[in-house]
UniProtKB/TrEMBL annotation:
Transmembrane segments: none annotated. The keyword Hydrolase applies. Belongs to the peptidase S28 family. Residues 1-20 form the signal peptide. The keyword Glycoprotein applies. Keywords: Glycoprotein, Hydrolase, Protease, Signal. This is Serine protease K12H4.7. GO terms for biological process: proteolysis. It comes from Drosophila virilis. InterPro entries: AB_hydrolase_fold (IPR029058), Peptidase_S28 (IPR008758), Ser_carbopepase_S28_SKS (IPR042269).
Length: 478
């Protein structure tokens, strides 16, 4: 009997492990690499979990159609440990990720709120995290996912929160955000200038664009400047060799090196675009999230191999972290996004926003980058059509993007009292304002790396930027 029980337990454990692996395998490699790129500012682990409270506010499903009376519950986190009569309100805006309280429990935003006895709030963006307003994410339901709706959520939140808190009725409001939510800070100040006295936008892309080829250029520059010429050459030559193998009857050898599943069709452009886009995204993720020493570490790994193609293949397999072969088929990507209609996952709503509002497809169009030429912006346009609707062709997406730039001013949003920062080696910086337009560009820094408290480990440029926003906050609250 004991033996049978042990066998049974072993089988249950194996089944559980298999299910776990299956769930992991179900996320296709292209989607998995994008998840690394479209995530919120660095998560902060906080020991004092009692300082932030999860709360909810009822929002209209559609702020712009009075005949639509449907509502949804939007989540936010509140830290009122410093609250007193007339406290300023420090709101950190959520973007295309699940909100968490860490950003309002420590870091520079928290430190500034503490200095001014401020109330700290982290709002969650509709359709992300727990703030999902519809039963499914069908194309019909996604019509309520738009930055204008999200900005209206924030405006209504500010008005409601102040009206329901007697101590805060006349409080001044400040906003902060990183990446897409930094863009929201800028655009909120454009649409609702009287509701906030100022904002901090870290790594805000402002210009919507279909073919965002500059992204990979900056990614390559980060590896060149921090990893050196040998590392850059290894990436460029290794990817070029893999491309050559697929194009010259050595596909089986290349597949074996990359551990790609046998169902992959190297003669299908979409499969090839899916694969090489995924490879390039590994390097993009490293560059976008790099801290001092990261790129140098990964370059040492790449240079430890005897030849270029083997280095790239091993780096990709290690980074993708799948238990067996890599399913790099385009159709797997399509099916995963379709699966997201009924199985909520932030991948589907954000990809919808790119098709409907922004583009920002990080392509291989430029020759001034080391990641080959096999992932054109056309890949993402085809994906928009296959996942959502045939109407999302190039012409429609271009029209959508033109409308976004018209609505918000592109690189000239014409706003006051918004402090914009970028990392010099942040690939997203190419779509934001530069020094000439008044933004602060922090040497060697990357994406959203300036939210930590002022520290002795900060570079002089990083420290100066943090001190500048602190000075501005004092001016705005004076």
């Amino acid at each position: 009997m004991l033996l049978l029980q042990l066998v049974s337990l072993a089988l249950v454990a194996l089944a559980s492990q298999a299910n776990s692996l299956k769930l992991k395998k179900d996320v296709p490699v292209f989607v998995k690499t994008l998840k690394e790129l479209y995530r919120g500012p660095p998560q902060r682990t906080v020991a004092r979990a009692d300082t932030a409270e999860e709360k909810w506010i009822t929002q209209p499903l559609d702020h712009f159609d009075e005949s639509n009376t449907k509502t949804y519950e939007m989540r936010y986190f509140l830290n009122d440990e410093f609250q007193t009569d007339g406290s300023p309100i420090f709101i950190f805006l959520g973007g295309e990720w699940e909100a968490s309280p860490g950003m309002i429990q420590q870091g520079h935003w928290y430190d500034m709120a503490k200095e001014h006895n401020g109330v700290l709030i982290y709002t969650e963006h509709r359709y992300y995290g727990e703030s999902v307003p519809t039963e499914t994410m069908s194309l019909e339901n996604l019509q309520y996912l738009h930055v204008k709706q999200a900005l209206a959520d924030v405006a209504r939140f500010i008005e409601t929160f102040k009206s329901e808190n007697a101590q805060l009725t006349n409080s001044k409001v400040l906003l902060a955000g990183g990446s897409y939510s930094a863009t929201m800070v800028v655009w909120f100040k454009r649409l609702y200038p009287d509701l906030v006295v100022g904002g901090w936008a870290s790594s805000a892309p402002l210009l919507a664009k279909v073919d965002f080829y500059e992204y990979k250029e900056v990614t390559g520059r980060a590896f060149l400047e921090l990893g050196g010429q040998k590392c850059y050459d290894r990436i460029q030559n290794g990817i070029a060799e893999l491309e050559y193998m697929f194009d010259n009857k050595r596909a089986a050898e290349a597949r074996a090196m990359l551990r790609i599943c046998s169902s992959f069709d190297h003669e299908n452009d979409l499969d090839m675009w899916n694969l090489f886009g995924s490879i390039s995204n590994i390097f993009a993720s490293v560059a976008q999230t790099q801290s001092p020493g990261d790129i140098e570490y990964y370059c040492d790994f790449l240079l430890s191999f005897d030849d270029n193609a083997t280095a790239i293949a091993n780096f990709a397999y290690w980074a993708w972290n799948y238990p067996s072969c890599i399913d790099a088929r385009y159709q797997e990507t399509v099916e995963y996004y379709l699966w997201g209609i009924d199985n909520f996952d932030s991948s589907r709503p954000w990809f919808y926003q790119t098709c409907n509002e922004y583009g920002w497809y990080q392509s291989s169009r430029s020759n001034n980058q080391p990641f080959g030429n096999k992932f054109p912006a056309t890949f993402n346009i085809e994906l928009c059509k296959d996942v959502f609707s045939s109407k999302f062709g190039n012409e429609q997406i271009e029209s959508n993007i033109a409308q976004t730039n018209e609505d918000f001013g592109g690189l000239e949003p014409n706003v006051e009292n918004v402090y914009m920062t970028h990392g010099e080696l942040d690939p997203w910086s190419a779509m934001g304002q530069g020094v000439a337009e008044g933004a602060t560009v922090i040497t060697k820094a990357s994406h959203c790396t300036d939210f930590g408290s002022i520290s002795s480990s900060d570079s002089s440029e990083m420290r100066a930027s943090k001190e500048r926003i602190a000075e501005l906050v004092r001016e705005w609250l004076a």
